[in-house]
Design goal:
Length: 105
């Protein structure tokens, strides 16, 4: 999970272009169970501008993503010009997931 706050002047088109590049890369990676990214919906003040949430089968799959040359290229091209602040976290959930309330009813 990572969130970004953008620099002034970053447009929604810039954010959608970043999301598209990240999704295209994600589609090629083994061991990636779930991947979602995109700009904030703007429903609450103070939110970050963009988020990436990914679930990997193994820590090695995560490391493959983080160290992938294309991922490094995307970061090198976009982060310096777009990102003012970044917060990330990687955690193990022990294979547990929580079903949505719709699935439980």
């Amino acid at each position: 999970m990572v969130t970004f706050t953008f620099r002034p002047g970053v447009t929604s088109a810039d954010a959608f272009a970043l999301a598209e590049e990240l999704r295209e890369l994600a589609e090629t990676l083994p061991g990636l169970r779930s991947y979602a990214c995109g700009p904030d919906l703007g429903r609450r003040e103070g939110n970050a501008d963009f988020a990436v949430a990914a679930i990997f089968d193994t820590e090695n799959a995560l490391l493959n993503y983080l160290n992938h040359p294309e991922h490094k290229d995307i970061i090198a091209r976009h982060v310096p010009v777009m990102v003012a602040d970044r917060h990330g976290v990687q955690f193990a959930d022990g294979g547990r997931t929580i079903e949505s309330t719709e699935e439980r009813t």
